[in-house]
Design a protein that fits this description.
Length: about 550
Amino acid sequence: MKVSTTALLPLLAATAVLAVPTSDQILLNELGTVTNEWQHAAGDILREGERRVMKWIDGGREFVQQHGLTYELVSHPAFSEHHLRMTEPSLCDPAVKQVSGYLDIADDKHLFFWFFEARHNPEEAPLVLWLNGGPGCSSTTGLLFELGPCRIAEDGKNVTYHPHSWTESANVIFLDQPVNVGYSYADGSTSVNTTPVAAEDVWAFLELFLTRFPKYAKLPFHIAAESYGGMYAPSIASVVHHKNLGLAKNMPEFAPGLVHINLESVMIGNGITDPYVQMASVPDAACEGEFPVFDDPQSPQCQSMRTKVPTCQRLMKSCYTFDSKFTCVPALLYCNSQLMGPVMQTGKNVYDVRRSCDRSKDGDLCYKELQWIETWMNLPATKRALGVNPSIDFQSCNMEVNQAFAMQGDGARNRAKLLPELVESGIRLLIYAGDADMACNYIGNERWIEQLESKFHEEFAKTSKQPWVTLDKGEVAGWVRAAGGDGFTAGNVTYVQVHAAGHMVPFDQPEASLDLISRWLADVPLTLNVSDFAGRTPFGGW
Ligand SMILES: *[C@@H]1O[C@H](CO)[C@@H](O)[C@H](O)[C@H]1NC(C)=O
Ligand SMILES: *[C@@H]1O[C@H](CO)[C@@H](O)[C@H](O)[C@H]1NC(C)=O
Ligand SMILES: *[C@@H]1O[C@H](CO)[C@@H](O)[C@H](O)[C@H]1NC(C)=O
């Protein structure tokens, strides 16, 4: 639906004290007349198919009523086809300010987001965008299973408070993208099946959100992603960086109202970013890693897998060179079936090979909690509170989206090549990996970051693993290699191996994961052992 802002402007002065109408007050008859109480307030009544949509202005803000839900509508002079349609829920962690709703793009694409303020000092805490992967999986996996302020509980009937939420240290946005993921939807047959297209939409979302909430636009901004998010995050960061550069050159005539996005870092957990390097590491992790899948490195399965590596890499090389679906689809199919296939066939949970995967009990994604999330997200009360059309069916992972990306060979593309420019512009890069994961294993992650051609390459190559000691417990939670900052910062290019964690690090190691991201966001060294200093300060204090 097109919004005619001009028609609404005259209402501004007249309706400054109006409250938001309740749903029964807003019932419209066939002719679209409104109960007298609201007659003077109703702005446009627009036909949207057979539905009627009402808009009004209150306190300088525009509101819209749809599916019996009331939203604030946010537009932006630089985006004629985009709107934010949002509400302020109070579930999950009612003590903090929240915003949820949609980015509507050109009438047919609708991306769902859910934002939580930090639990402490939200005016100063950094802003983090969190993305899960798949492709096709909802970021509410991160929210309700990993790092959000509440976690799924009681078979999906309820959620519980999460003490080690990343909102302890950051304001966090969870975004379901691309369309048809989670609560996000498309009208008609629109679909998004490549990472670069998805990245442009995310940038538009950030612009609208930060323009509506300028106080968050001042904060340092970080993109955090997991798994296939290792493909998304470099692409989004690259789009944001280039838009920032364009903005710096052309302001303000070129792009009225656009804000600079303070992108400080990219954080990728158990990601897939450089498939050429990472696919070849599967036999190493599965046969000789910290948590091997096959007990004997010389077993027939291990030997057979190793013989597949050269062909996989030859195909990946073609994909990197030609960057087309004709070369990337075969690479993806071959490497997945020949290298991931044998791991899957063991019946272990590929996301955490310390566990087995009983699909009849735990579902296709091997964790019963992900089924609970579907239950909770499909409760009418949850949808209503979050501003979601009750007819939307929520799935943790949408396999059609997954297939659509696969048919473009998107998952075989080289996204690491976007990163040198970013790190050389001062945007920091954290790659961390739980070492019990076989889907995007830690060995492959360490290798690609070590090979990344940037001005930090040489320094990184010379680093050795240092223990990462958590501040609270003084325990070794993993190993760190960091280049840049001379040990006074968390590093410009940093790799962390997280001990005893699977694919979803914050699920397996909640305290350590909060320690990691809090120190990363504050840009303080991860290798410092604070207990080293305790009781040894010659100066007694003030
Ligand atoms: C969910 O848990 C909260 C906090 O423990 C409780 O107050 C609430 O009643 C529960 N809701 C349901 C539907 O069980
Ligand atoms: C490394 O990161 C810091 C922020 O910690 C930044 O100020 C600096 O410019 C970066 N170094 C290089 C060489 O880009
Ligand atoms: C941290 O420092 C304390 C005190 O010096 C020491 O006892 C402890 O072993 C150190 N921890 C690690 C992991 O090095």
